[in-house]
Write a structure and sequence with these properties.
Helix content: 40-55%
CATH architecture: 3-Layer(aba) Sandwich
Strand order of the largest sheet: 1-6-5-2-4-3
Order of helices and strands: EEHEHHEHEHHEH
Shape: globular
CATH topology: Rossmann fold
Largest sheet: 6 strands, mixed
Number of strands: 6
């Protein structure tokens, strides 16, 4: 685990974004963390407008103009859920620092980002194995090219996906618990 910034101290249950490129396990890890903390899990894929889904389904990468409304919708949903339930976990690529900053500003609460980090080979294998997902493996390289790893001054932690799921979940849980009062 690589700590990129001091732990965030939450006044309530965690508000966190499990982030990374397609195939890294955002939905699996995010849903499991939501269950562990008793907070809702939001999948950013559910907040894409139909035009974004159609574009990605055709193998066309999104640009910033496509992403801003989607990131705003996710941030607003996270804020609303956190206000209702005391916390929320979301799975979102959040590839660029500007995207992470936009999400955090929209939420208006302390948020921690958990980057699920893995090799291109691991991500490719996972993407080609999954069924019924609109994101084709051909978009992996564009996501990796766009990825800006969190800087030291961001509230982010980098977690490796190269091992088993259970230790990864325990590590992510420990990170989020360390931010709780």
């Amino acid at each position: 685990m690589s700590m990129a910034a001091s732990p965030v101290r939450f006044e309530r249950r965690p508000v966190a974004v499990v982030m990374g490129p397609c195939g890294c396990g955002k939905s699996t890890v995010g849903a499991a963390l939501g269950a562990r903390f008793g907070v809702p899990f939001l999948d950013a894929d559910d907040y894409h407008p139909p035009a974004n889904v159609a574009k990605m389904s055709q193998g066309i990468p999104l640009d910033d103009d496509d992403r801003w409304p989607w990131l705003t919708a996710l941030g607003e949903a996270m804020r609303d859920r956190a206000e209702d339930t005391g916390g929320v976990i979301a799975g979102c690529s959040a590839l660029k620092r500007s995207y992470r900053e936009h999400i955090a500003r929209t939420i208006g609460l302390p948020v921690v980002f958990l980057l699920l980090d893995g090799s291109r080979e691991t991500l490719w294998a996972r993407m080609t194995a999954r069924k019924d997902h609109y994101m084709p493996p051909s978009l992996l390289d564009s996501q990796l090219a766009a990825l800006e790893r969190p800087a030291a001054d961001e509230p982010a932690v980098i977690l490796s996906i190269e091992g088993e799921l259970a230790p990864l979940l325990d590590e992510a849980t420990a990170v989020l618990e360390s931010g709780l009062p």
